[in-house]
């Protein structure tokens, strides 16, 4: 079996011809400071309403280097623009001729990534992607993102899949002897015990990811590089929980970008009542005698702001300049609160309720954009359409643009 590599952009497809490259140079072993973080999830479709926006919300909050998605449910009609995550490159393998399934991987754009192709042995029935990710100048690793459906026996033999994976791993370790291995995804009941033993892989996810079962797994031959494994709820409505894998020293996070500061006021009843009470009794002796209307207005606003700051608590929220429009300050605040409930306090039910609220807010923000859009504002209109587009609407929009 001959190994082939193809460097793919975020909009590449299966028709791109692979090209041979020189693989004679090996690289030094990885260290924790050059190990990426992972976010692994089976969302049961990225094509459903708000799924991509909710995934972006989780991405902005957690800042993983690699996002691995199984059961993407993507088809040819779902363009790269529809599922774009800023600052990430997309690699995808869509299920052919049948709905559901599929895998895709979003790689931080600061990394160099190549897609590995094995045309001599790989069946299109197998739902996996093989990538070689260059994390730094001196370190790379082999990544396999895989989805093994529960009814796979109707399409292929599980032992054939395992033999195929084993052969590919043998080839990879021969060509890239210093690269470590990561094999991850939703494998359902696929028995990987013998394969893991043969290739020195260890499964490091220890908490249930679907009901009381561990279906979403993470195998690697360097478990020492990934000491932190967390299972938590995703913002996307799915029966699967997200798996977060982090290195000992998460130095692969995105670099600092310009931020803007916003404030969220706590408008609960007790604070509003306190403000209303003081406003009712307030003596405007410093404002009313003024004869200049502009000075009087500015003084009135200044006094009101002082009373608001006195009685209404506020919290500072920072937003990135590239954050999409649906990530409002309130959404960002709720994302942080959900993280604390998940990680610090283990209050999963409360975190789940906040996830529902986040989804509702994002849907409302999208709806507000649609309502603000008008035929006189074509750019805003198409922005709104593209964020809610499905198969039919995308085809319709193309027809409209042609006319």
Strand arrangement in the largest pleated sheet: 1-6-7-8-9-11-10
- CATH fold descriptor of the domain at 4-11 and 33-246: Deoxyribonuclease I, Chain A
Strand count:
15
Listing every helix as H and every strand as E from the N terminus to the C terminus, the arrangement reads EEHEEEEEEHEHEEEEEHHEHHHH
Helix run count: 9
How is this structure best described in words?
Among the domains are: 4-11 and 33-246, Deoxyribonuclease I, Chain A (4-Layer Sandwich); 267-312, no CATH class. The chain contains nine helices and 15 strands. Helix 4 crosses helix 5, helix 6 (329-343) runs antiparallel to helix 7 (348-372) and helix 7 packs antiparallel against helix 8. It has helices at residues 51-62, 158-175, 193-199, 269-281, 293-311, 329-343, 348-372, 378-387, 391-402; strands at residues 4-6, 38-41, 66-70, 88-93, 103-108, 112-117, 127-136, 139-147, 180-186, 202-203, 216-220, 228-232, 242-246, 259-265, 314-320. By secondary structure, the chain is α+β, with helices and mostly antiparallel strands. The strands form three sheets. It has a seven-stranded mixed beta sheet with strand order 1-6-7-8-9-11-10, covered by helices on one side. Strands 4-5-3-2-13-12 form a six-stranded mixed beta sheet, with no helix packed on it. The longest helix has 25 residues, at 348-372.
Summarize this structure as a short list of keywords or feature phrases.
single chain; 403 residues; alpha+beta; Deoxyribonuclease I, Chain A; 7-stranded mixed β-sheet; 9 helices; elongated; disordered C terminus
